[in-house]
Amino acid sequence: MTNRAATILLQLGLLAVVVAALPYKIFELDRYFVPKELILNAVAIIFAVILVARRRAITIDVVDALLAFFLIWSAASALFATNHWLAQRALGVSVASAVVFWGARRIGASGGYRPLLAAAALATVIAAITALAQAYGFDTDYFSQNRAPGGTFGNRNFVAHICAIGLPALVWSTVTAKRPSGAFLGSLGAAVVAAALVLSRSRAAWLAVAACAVVLAIPLVVSRRYWDRKIIGGRFARLLLAMVIAGTVATILPNHLNWNSESPYLDSARGMVNYKQGSGRGRVAQYRNTLHMAEANPIFGVGPGNWPVRYVKFAPGGDPSIAEDGMTANPWPSSDWVAFVSERGFVAAILLLAAFTALFLGSFRGWREAGGGDAVLARLVLAGTVVIIMVVSAFDAALLLAAPALLAWTIIGVSAGARRRGREVDLTRREWIIAAAGTMLIAIAATARSATQTMAMSAVGDGGRTAAWVQGATWDPGSYRINLKVAQLYARRGRCTAARPYARRAVSLFPNAPAAKRVWRQCQ
To answer: How many angstroms separate the Cα of 288 from the Cα of each of 170, 280, 316?
Structure first.
């Protein structure tokens, strides 16, 4: 019953995280990230309680050890961060992701991988539907016009990442469906996902899907000897046909997207590996400057989530990653791995990379003992998802964000659980208490932070009243944006006594931010 409750919890979490969004447009990024982080952290807390309640001898393998050391190193890195609010938030996402992985892996080890892979597939389709709805004219306050069609993710790249990460689970759910109706619905879902991927023009997602297809081509052919149902091949062919048709129709059918090119999709395809012009050139420059930051802080980095706090010191004039206000245009670099190296140090990045490598290699072992074709194909879901997340995270943020992290670690965990080899370790009562207390404290703090951030955005609303901003700062004292706004509002009225505490707090959060320093100097 514990496994069943945990499965239902993860299923609900997967469905909720793809639709969660807030209507407060003044918080253009956080109105999507914060509610999704709240869901991820809440799921992790409940999972942690379940795992602790069932304290017993546990099976630990190299992946578990690598992830545990990665979290320990990340926690140590957070102690040296300039902005501890950002560090706590980023660390919370990492800890919650690991807890989800361990919980999903336990479910997979007990043979319960089908319900979770089906839920991941459904969540992927729902995410794609929200993007298509926006692309074809549906409008709501929960959508953003800045990077359409982002649906309930606010950015076309983010929803494309979800579509790519969940695609292997969707393919598996379709070809192994127990009923023909399930296979038919799966093919329709794959068509929806393909259309969303095309309309997103996300080069990282396109590259990830292409890499997955290339890497799994031979293993997929080899796996045919283990298929216990001949209909799998036919279903796979129909699914591919549905995706090709849907992708083609998406490029022809008129939509409400305002592209600046007459051939936007062809231009994106041509520019997938272009690093001499446009956004590719900006990425290269950003990676180079960020590596300088990592070289200056090689052991523990600058602290989880603190890349935007320190990057401006290493960016030369004219850096495309710096916005007009003198701060980074995005709160993360254009790569998870660049972020891990610069924020947590080289050791942490190597530990996580080694964990993914072990997961990928392990997916091709023990097929004979897997217990059937469905289980063997689940191993390929593991391999494909690892390939996709590695490619996506090389060019964009994915593991740093709650929604793709929850989806990816659930799929990876439950499909990795289908093959579980390691050694049983009896932890002492003291070891259990230390591990459980540390995990629970971080998860509870992250959940509380997400909840208070939500309350702060709700208090600010449309940002029309000073009192609303002040109340928002009370709920979320770690928000640079809110503290700076309150300081500016008071300073404009000549009320420097009231402005000074908020200006001081803003400067402490982002010491190199020009706007915060300007208000602080004004009220000295």
So the answer is: 37, 13, 11
